[in-house]
């Protein structure tokens, strides 16, 4: 069932959002012919006014839902800062929805979003299906996915502010091929599988172009409480590859400590690079190489994009997928 919004009424009656709101609130500053035109549009479309929509028309308040896995809060702090700062400018109310394995499924979150009648959604958790996205789209709820690149979709209400992790991994591996190094591995991350899949696609594409097969995916099951426990066991029977890639700080630090305890030196025996940069990578010795990602800007751009989508800004009709730049930050774990 399509969700009829105040925007639909304004468009049907060919008036502003503020005018529709004044009619709903029985304001006496609206001309009678305009009032009748708006009321006819409301009846024709079957629009049912609600507090959120009225607040938007009066420029007092809107409500945006942010969906994020609870384990990702510490990694998305700067993105959240960017989102919240722009939200303050537009006087948005923010409703948080968190997901955690076995407790809060995306289906439950989506149901809550629909019942709450929020005006738009920012999604951090990209582990959702096309079907779930179609449900939100059916209710005419604009969505912006921030973080990694999502597959192309025909849905009209979906935007994406992303880092191209596939391209990043491809460029990284290719740069080592140019140095004559192809002994490369990547440590599995179980929190954000979408980013991992994209990194793997980039690595595999680089290997395939060189006529090689990538087979150094370091995966571990949940019987190990942490990547450090697994890597400590792993290095009893294995040597580290010449280059090791990790997604998050905890894995990078685990690799650094486990390899050192096993008698290997970084970067002499093995170079180490972490994709997501944060302050903890500078607190260990040697400092761990990483990538600089404009996290604050990603949050700010995502909220601005959602705002334009809510206002039916034609400038975003063909520009809802915004790729953000990144840069490599060499430190002491790479040569």
The secondary-structure element order is HHHHEHEHEHEEHEHEHEHEEHEE
How many domains, as an integer? 3
CATH architecture of the largest domain: 3-Layer(aba) Sandwich
Mean pLDDT: 86
Biggest sheet, open or closed, and with what strands and sense?
Answer: 6 strands, parallel
Structural class: alpha/beta
Q: Helix fraction?
A: 40-55%
Q: In what order do the strands lie side by side in the largest sheet?
A: 2-1-3-4-5-11
First-last Cα distance? 58 Å
Shape assignment: elongated
| The first-level CATH class name of the largest domain | Alpha Beta
CATH superfamily annotation of the largest domain: Response regulator
Strand content: 15-25%
Low-pLDDT runs of 5+ residues are 51-61
The number of helical runs is 12
Number of strands: 12
Would you tell me which CATH topology of the largest domain applies? Rossmann fold
Supply Rg.
24 Å
